[in-house]
Amino acid sequence: MIRILLAEDQAMLRGALSALLSLESDLEVVGSAADGEAAWREVQRLKPDVLVTDIEMPGLTGLELAQRIARHELPVKVVIVTTFARAGFLRRALDAGVRGYLLKDAPAEQLADAIRNVQRGGRAIDPQLAIDAWGEADPLSDRERQALRLAGEGLSASEIAQQLNLSHGTVRNYLSEAIGKLGVGNRIEAYRLARQKGWL
Hints:
Keywords: DNA-binding, Phosphoprotein. By secondary structure, the protein is α/β, with parallel strands linked by helices. It has helices at about 10-20, 35-45, 60-70, 85-95, 110-120, 125-135, 140-150, 155-165, 170-180, 185-195; strands at about 1-5, 25-35, 50-55, 75-80, 100-105, 125. Helices cover about 55% and strands about 15% of the residues. The chain is globular.
């Protein structure tokens, strides 16, 4: 029996995924969480075989969750199910140790097969995204990405500095670097372009 934890902030979708996966005789949904921090607690408590997670969630994103699982060397395999059909997200997911990356409009049986494949040690990646992923490389560093994401949420450089425990000057440097690398005029344009490419 493959033990699964679901992390998805939309209650209806979480319920539907749970119901669909429970129809499979070899899959058991042992728990679910509506945000990244709750999912992290449940991963530690339930020790599932596979975590099925969305990318965009309150608290921790699915990618940050995967990174934390990898950093703590937990034997939990991560499958992302998302609406983000962007190569940049897939590249970051693979870098974070994610074993599966499927889109939410894929057939339900594809998810069950992906979970089985991942549990056996394989990978399950949307084929078109896999082709696109090796096109344009993400030029941003982790810190530039963090600063840009917060800038896109409307925080000032001082507020970003406070949140990331950095100096005001360091944050300005990160934002300036990101703007330069993306070849745009300001931080909002940089945020929009990076979002569009799947780099945030």
